[in-house]
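Please decode residue identities from the backbone states below.
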């Protein structure tokens, strides 16, 4: 259960600590080879995962409930009709969206979101010292958030693919183009050579042969 009314005071601190712990993984993902969008998504993915963990597993001062018990309340405070329902949906949108953009597999991203939600509810049920309660509607709202996150990521991929197709699979400005035209700004232009190296060498050989024949003709005459 996302205890927003009690967990928020420690949510930001916990999220910052967890995000700082995952920075080496994030920078390693950013430095890998590949397109920019998957690398940026892989860079933001640890922070999105840390947000889910901080929001759902931060200890609260609530009273401990029975171990292994999960509620099925769908309405009232904490149910689908409360403010926690849209928050639970939004919580999984960044995680599954970044996972889809980083890996490109939509079905696996949805399955990962549902599995993560079920694992979190199981931990909340089996560890009463967290002060959390396991609720079935949390899995439903988290699953809906996973589908929304994958849908947004799919829209971004479709737009990016459309732009790439419109340019014929080529970049609008390539690196050699930039280097060549930047070099024209700093290098003084010079007239192009009139002859190639092989032509110059061949002409020199012909001139040498002509001088040799003229010299022999004069000596023989």
């Amino acid at each position: 259960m996302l205890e927003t009314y009690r967990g928020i005071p420690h949510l930001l601190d916990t999220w910052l600590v967890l995000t700082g712990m995952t920075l080496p993984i994030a920078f390693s993902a950013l430095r890998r080879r590949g397109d920019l969008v998957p690398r940026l998504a892989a860079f933001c993915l640890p922070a999105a995962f840390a947000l889910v963990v901080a929001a759902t597993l931060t200890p609260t001062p609530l009273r401990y409930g029975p171990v292994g018990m999960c509620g099925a309340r769908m309405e009232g405070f904490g149910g689908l009709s409360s403010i926690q329902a849209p928050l639970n949906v939004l919580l999984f949108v960044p995680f599954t969206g970044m996972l889809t953009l980083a890996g490109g597999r939509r079905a696996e991203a949805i399955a990962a979101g549902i599995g993560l939600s079920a694992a979190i509810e199981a931990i909340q049920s089996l560890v009463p010292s967290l002060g959390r309660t396991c609720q079935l509607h949390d899995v439903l709202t988290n699953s809906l958030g996973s589908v929304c996150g994958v849908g947004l990521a799919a829209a971004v991929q479709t737009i990016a693919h459309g732009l790439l197709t419109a340019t014929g699979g080529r970049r609008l400005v390539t690196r050699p183009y930039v280097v060549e035209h930047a070099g024209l700004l700093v290098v003084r232009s010079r007239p192009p050579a009139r002859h190639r190296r092989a032509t110059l060498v061949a002409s020199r050989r012909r001139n040498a042969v002509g001088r040799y024949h003229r010299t022999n003709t004069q000596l023989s005459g």
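Observation: The chain has one domain: 4-166.
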